[in-house]
Predict the 3D structure of the following.
Amino acid sequence: MGDYPTGIYNINAHSDGMGIVDGESRIREEYSDYLKDESNTFGSGVEKLFFPENIKHVSYIVREAQKRGKFITISGGRTGICAGAVAEGGWLLSLEKMKRILTLSSKSGSFELKVESGLRLSELVTKVRSRELGIEGSSMERFIESSQTFLYPPDPTETTAMLGGTVATNASGARTFYYGPTRRWVVGMEVVLTSGELLRIRRGEVKENNGYFSIRREGGTPIRLPFPGYTIPETKHSAGLFSKRGMDIIDLFIGSEGILGIIVNVTIVLIPEPVSYIGGVGFFNSEKHAVDFVINARNGDQKPLALEYFDSGSLLLLDETRKIQGPTSEIPEIPYISGISDNTKINVYAVYFESAGWRGEKKDDMNESIKKWQMLIEKSGGDPAVSWGAISKRDLLRLKSFRHSLPETINKIIAQNKRMDPRIHKVGTDMAVPDSHLAEMVDFYRETLDGESLRYVIFGHIGNNHLHVNMIPDSHTELERAKKLYGMFARKAVSLGGTVSAEHGIGKLKREYLALLYTRNEIQMMKTIKHVLDPKGILTPGNMFEPH
């Protein structure tokens, strides 16, 4: 990628050797998994399903779609929960066969890895840890010979997601609190435009200037792409096109949910991994104390990698899962909950925290860090005697199991309720607010929901003021009520300077909430930018905006 400056290049497109599945009925019967995502939203069917293996294949598909007036929806790991990869007719393009590691280059203590979009995060982690990247060269030799291990910092919870999909949604996870979201770690990409041309982008080469980005075109006039020009929330944020004065053009594509072009590969940064980790869970007998702990941790000198929250309902569900799993469960016994039924009102709240030991630090530094966490728990109203701590790999894995088990448990309950009424689904929030409004937003959630009979839990990325309220309806009436509550929460978050989507994007399911965050003119500017790159509107119709 370094051989080419940022610009638009022609491709000798062809379809030789590409997998193509024809016919709506065949696709619906044999490839039904490609017609939905984790939201369990099904599309209306597609005429063709494509499995490109290279950029030339992708270019051929979009050129043919232009000629024939067909929509194209991009499919990755289908781990999204906003129906972004769900097709409403037309053609479906799966990137799952484009998963090669292309190049590696060393950059002053870190490495840059160019990877095709179809590689899953779990595969990326395995290849980087094993140092088996399948490529050669002097940078690869330095990578193998290094005494350090390296990591790709974003930590999305769903490790089966494909890399391109995480870039298209600016995905994040627990360690986003420390490392920041995907955007921060992407330095290049290649995007197939709906013209069939290839846009190569390198961070730092094209920035907004006087309201436009100017992109050179091979053998032709440059494209002038408008700058969005609006202000986005000062929070963790993944709703609409990114906008910041003087921004780099690459940031317009990161989080664009596939509406501007098809991201076929990305160049990401690998950095040295911490030499050790400290994990723990503090327990508190009031929600205020738990929030105080988070605020104290953010303002202290501990530099946590992650701060994750679990309310009383979440802890009861996790304890229920532990009992069902029996002696083999990775979930430890939860303090104050043993012997309590899930119908009992309890007041226990937990915060998962994680920090790191860095190269050059002494063992005493780790011991001192553990003491500081214990003191912070006590200062915030918790009891260090019942808190959990972990420094061994085994114990850290148990804590991660504790953290990741909750969404799986909720999904099982929803699946059971769905058998009674197929219309039922989980309603989960994705809002975030500025630091100064964390306590107010938590109080609003609690005061609103405690007056409802609806079952719910609150958990998630509290370090970023980004909590998931998962409402679990057991009837269609409760589902409709949950949707109304969702709208109330979105409006409250925006009124506090927050966002309607912090990590999952807008997709097709949250389009109405975009209008809470942006004015009609601001949304029109997003549409104008899309129109410049996709004048016929063939790409991912329905994502962010109503299809035209």
Q: What stands out?
A: The first strand starts at residue 7 and ends at 9. Residues 393-420 form the longest helix (28 residues).
